[in-house]
Structure formats: C-alpha cells, structure tokens
UniProtKB/TrEMBL annotation:
It catalyses: tetracosanoate + ATP + CoA = tetracosanoyl-CoA + AMP + diphosphate; a very long-chain fatty acid + ATP + CoA = a very long-chain fatty acyl-CoA + AMP + diphosphate; a long-chain fatty acid + ATP + CoA = a long-chain fatty acyl-CoA + AMP + diphosphate. It is an enzyme of class 6 (ligase). This is long-chain-fatty-acid--CoA ligase. GO terms for molecular function: long-chain fatty acid transmembrane transporter activity; long-chain fatty acid-CoA ligase activity; nucleotide binding.
Length: 623
C-alpha cells in the first residue's frame, strides 16, 4: 500500500513538474496546439474538396444557414434587422431579374460600386448565385482609375448605388462607348442610359435559384475581384478564388467566434477585411453583424452597447481614433470581448486596453492577393502573428536580407537571397506551391509576374514578394516593420506612389515627381509626400496643384507634403531614389529645399514653416 502511494505521489509530482516546466519554457504550447488543430482540421476539409471535386463554397454556407436559421438576424443596418431569410430571398430577386432579362450568364463578371448597405450583400450574393464573378470597386477612386478597373476584370455590367450614381456623370459616355451596361439601385434614374433595378425586383421571384448555376468543382475557380493598390500605378484586380474566400471566412471561427456573437463591421465592404472576413466570417459561424455605412468614432461605443456587440473589426487607425475621443463615464461597460484586424500600434494597443478594458485584440496579417497568413492567436501586444515549427511545415515563408539603398533584396555571389537571423528585419517572401498557390491579378500577366521572385534559394523556386519588412523574434512572434517599394499605407488604404506621381506629372509646371510616405508622430502608417522638379521657365502654383489633386485623387492618396528639388537622385538601375528622402522626412529645420504643406483651410499648398511643422508633430493640427 505504501509502495503504491509512493508511486502515485511520484507520478503527481512528475506531472506537476512537467506542467511547471511547460509553463516556463513553452508558455504558449497549448494555445499553439489548439490553434494548429483548427488549422489542420480546416485544411483537411479543403483537401477533401480537391479529392471529391465537390466544393462547398461560402455562398453554399450562406444558403445552408438561411435554411437552418432563417429567422435569425444576419445584418443590422441603421436600426433595421435583416434576417438570413430576408437577405437570401432578396438576393434571389436580384438573380432572377438579371436571369430573366438575359443580361448575364454563368462565368460573366459584374462590377459593383456601392457603399456599405444590405443591398451590397444582396447584389453580391444574387450575382454569385448565377455563377458570376463580382468585382468590388473602391468608392474613392476617380474616373481615370475607374475606367481602368473595367479593363482589368473584363466586366460589362456595373451595378452602382443610388447615392453614387452622380459620381459617374463624367464617365457615363465612356462606359457607353465600351458597351458597359449601368444599373442603379433605384426605382428611377435621371440618366436615360442607366437602368433601374429596384423597380424590377418588386415583381421578381424570391424563389431559390437552381444550385447548379453557382456550383463549382474547383477551389481555384474565380469568385471575386478585389482591387488593391500596387506598384504599377493604377489599381490592380486581385483574383479571389473560392479557396481564398473559404480561408478568410474561417477567421472568426479560428479565433473562437460562435453563433452567439454580434459582429460590428465599420470597414468598407469593397475591402477584403469587411467582405471576406467580416460578412463571410459572420455567416460561417451563423452570427449577426451590425453593418455601418461609415465608421464614426463618436457613435462606436453607443452602437456596441445598443446592439450588444461582442466582436468588432478594426484597422489600427480606427483604434487610434477611439482612443483620441474625449473620455466618458462607463467606457468599460460593454460586452465587446474581441477585436479582429491589423495595423494596431503597441502604444495604441495598450491605451485601448487601459481605456476600454482587456478586450482580446486579434491581429492578423495577409494581403488580399497573398498566399500567406499569420494570426496572433495568443494576443501578444505588437505582434501580427505567431509561427512555430509545425506552422512552417504547412506554410513555407522566409525573411530575407533587403538592401534599402538599392530598394531590392540582397543577392549573394551565387545570385541567391539570404535569410536573416531571428530578431533581424527582413523582407517577407512566401513560397508558391500546390498548397499555397498564388493567383495574382486579372489582366496583364506582367502584373502577376512583377509580384514574384524566382531562383530565391535554389534554381527553379518561386516566391511571392509581399513587399513587407517583418521580424521574427526568438519566441516565434512575427511583427510588421515597414513597407518597401512603391506602396505605402495611409488612413487604412494602400497608396500606389506611381499612380500619384502620374497625376502630379499632369501639371504643366511639374517636370518630374517622386512620391513616397513619411512617418508623422501620432499617426498610423505614412503620410504622402512628393519631391518634385519644377519645369524651367515655370513657377510652382500651390492653388492650381491643390485643385488638381482634389479632383483626381482620393483623400488618402493626396500628398500632404511637397519638397521642391533641382534634381532627382537615382539608383544604379535608374530608379528614383526614395530611401534618403524618406529618412529626411519633412522637418523644415533639417531640409534646405523649399517645403509645402497641403492646407485644406486655404485650399492651397502653403509653405511649410517651423510653426506649422510643430503643430503637426505635436498633434495640434489634425491630418
């Protein structure tokens, strides 16, 4: 008996010792295990789709939910609740209108230009039920870029929100010349050439659309086009397949979301975060989402309390806006338990917790068109994701040395890239394989090819260039450092420097423009700045330039600062040198060149004085 008791005591002591050792040496062991189990489980489902050629898509999941929980609220918008049945039947009406009129057929692409509203989802799902691909257009883009978008994805039909129809007035003739039908979500239109959809939906059937219309046998079949700014100047149509849609829709589930959650979506639906992760994730777990037309910092917590929100989507800038709101009583009196998004700065993260409670902030990393994704499933402040030995077996990625002066990856004497050590910053590259394919962009193959690096570590290999500088620490946490190349991020949007440079170059007095992003204390991302050369015999005209960029560029892409130079510094491969300009910033005390600031009050680019500079860096002047 004593011997048995001794063995039991030793066993308990051993288990306790292992537990303590695990806590000290491998503190995230069980969290990693549970997270990886979900990844493997979901991945196995994807593999089954490949084997059986019976793909159960995000849309199939929605139809299934509409049948199983028809009376549950799916979308709450401006105080009105729309059930799963409501959205299902209304999307059926959209499908039947286009089917009856013979306007579209399976395989066609339809462009969608709408602000956040339930009908965005109804039109999206309705067209998808007919087997069409839908192209989400950014509501901020201007005429020149908008026409380019149609050429990219091959859309011959545009569905536009009633409130956005007038923004197309300048390009309606061009759309007609290209035989593009324009439909508006209204019962009447002031433009004779624009067809109306709502009046036709009134008599359309709400009966289900035959499932064979939307059926697909391949995960790689195109599903959506989402436009993203890149290095080519104009927006690029990222190809979204059913594989990518299914992965994105599993985001909330992977973080522990359930059917009891209420998801708050204040981000624009034309971005993958709100549409693929937000709407897709909500219907995947059978939850309810509160959809906002636009984000409002002053109404955020009011909405969260009114609708019992438990999960919200964010970008780092959104959280900073919330922290900058005046303090109020009861800021921690809410039911929000989780935030899902990206770009949250460490200082804002900590301030957000201090102000609003220990909400679990779930950072994630992954571009719209990318083939790698990281998720910070343990909530480590400052990290965008976490990796480990097993994760690297599934997703092949590497951080390589990057030459900031030459603006390209470092290559050794053998012509291969070199990996950085843990703790060092490197360019994130993701290997292209059967498990992690890269679908690229619609249109010119050159756009896709420019995103790829070949012969990275050995002859014949291919990697996706994410354009992001990252660091992986000794504990396998991955953090974002910066973007490289010709894109920077401001106000939650990617800005293509070449597109902005082309717009600036249209001015008669600008000979050359070099656009880049600069850090501004207290602000997320980088603000736009342009170094320009004024043509001989011309003078810089700040008012004329202000009017020009106001009409041709969205607000987030407009350069806030200008630097007038006599000549441009070039790299050895005749590329404009940006690195030293970025490092110089916009401090008039440290720069001898004339500097200007975009002043919305005077509607002009005005000289950037020390006083204006101090007001910007101190946060007194809002950008």
């Amino acid at each position: 008996m004593l011997v048995s008791l001794g063995w039991v005591t030793a066993l308990v002591a051993g288990i306790f010792g292992i537990h303590i050792g695990q806590k000290l040496c491998f503190p995230y062991f069980w969290k990693d295990v549970f997270y990886l189990a979900k990844v493997i489980r979901y991945g196995a489902r994807m593999e089954m789709y490949k084997i059986t050629s019976k793909v159960f898509t995000v849309l199939d999941r929605f139809v299934q939910q509409a049948a199983q929980i028809p009376n549950k609220a799916f979308i709450i918008y401006e105080g009105v609740s729309y059930t799963y049945r409501d959205i299902d039947e209304r999307s059926n009406k959209v499908a039947h209108v286009f089917e009856k009129l013979g306007t579209v057929k399976k395989g066609d692409t339809v462009a969608l230009l709408m602000n956040n509203e339930p009908d965005f989802v109804c039109v999206w799902f309705g067209l998808s039920k007919l087997g069409c691909s839908v192209a989400f257009l950014n509501t901020n883009i201007k005429s020149r870029s908008l026409l380019h978008c149609f050429n990219c994805c091959g859309a011959k039909i545009l569905v536009v929100g009633k409130d956005l129809l007038d923004t197309l007035q300048d390009i309606l003739p061009s759309l007609q010349e290209d035989s593009i039908q324009v439909w508006t979500m209204g019962k009447e239109s002031s433009h004779p050439e624009v067809r109306t959809l709502l009046d036709k939906m009134e008599w359309a059937s709400e009966q289900p659309v035959p499932a064979e219309y939307r059926a697909t046998t391949s995960l790689k079949a195109h599903n959506l086009y989402i436009f993203t700014s890149g290095t080519t100047g104009l927006p690029k149509a990222a190809v979204i397949t059913h594989l990518q849609s299914l992965k994105a829709a599993a985001g909330f589930w992977a973080y522990g979301g359930t059917c009891d959650d209420v998801v708050y979506i204040p981000l624009p639906l034309y971005h993958s975060a709100a549409s693929l992760i937000g709407i897709g994730g909500t219907l995947h777990i059978g939850a309810t989402c509160v959809l906002k037309k636009k984000f409002s910092a002053s109404h955020f917590w009011i909405d969260c309390k009114e609708y019992n929100v438990t999960i919200f989507q964010y970008i780092g800038e959104l959280c900073r806006y919330l922290c900058n709101q005046p303090k109020a009583e009861g800021e921690k009196e809410h039911k929000v338990r989780m935030g899902v998004g990206n770009g949250l700065r460490q200082d804002v993260w900590r301030e957000f917790h201090r102000r609003f409670g220990e909400i679990r902030m779930c950072e994630l990393y992954g571009s719209t068109e990318g083939n790698v994704c990281f998720m910070n499933h343990v909530g480590k402040i400052g990290a965008v994701g976490r990796s480990n030995f097993f994760y690297k077996l599934i997703f092949k990625y590497d951080l390589v040395k990057y030459d900031m002066v030459k603006d390209e990856p470092f290559r050794n004497k053998q012509g291969f890239c070199e990996r950085v050590r843990k703790g060092q910053t490197g360019l994130l590259l993701s290997k292209v394989s059967a498990r992690t394919p890269f679908f690229g962009y619609a249109g010119s193959k050159q756009l896709t090819e420019k995103k790829l690096f070949h012969d990275v570590f050995e002859k014949g290999d291919t990697y996706v260039n994410t354009g992001d500088l990252m660091v992986e620490d000794q504990k396998d946490f991955i953090s974002f450092r910066d973007r490289v190349g010709d894109t920077f991020r401001w106000k939650g949007e990617n800005v293509a420097t070449t597109e902005v440079a082309e717009i600036l170059g249209l001015m008669d007095f600008i000979q050359e423009a070099n656009v880049y992003g600069v850090e501004v204390p207290g602000n997320e991302g980088r603000a736009g700045m342009a170094s320009v050369i004024v043509r001989p015999d011309y003078e810089f005209d700040g008012k004329k330039l202000f009017d020009h960029i106001l009409s041709d560029l969205p607000s987030y892409a407009r350069p806030l600062f200008l630097r007038i130079q006599e000549s441009m510094e070039m790299t050895g491969t005749f590329k404009q040198q940006k690195f030293r300009l970025v490092e110089s910033g916009f401090n008039p005390s440290a720069i001898s060149d004339p500097l200007y600031f975009l002043d919305n009050a005077t509607k002009c680019y005005i000289p950037l004085t020390d006083t204006i500079y101090d007001s910007i860096v101190s946060g007194q002047r809002k950008l």
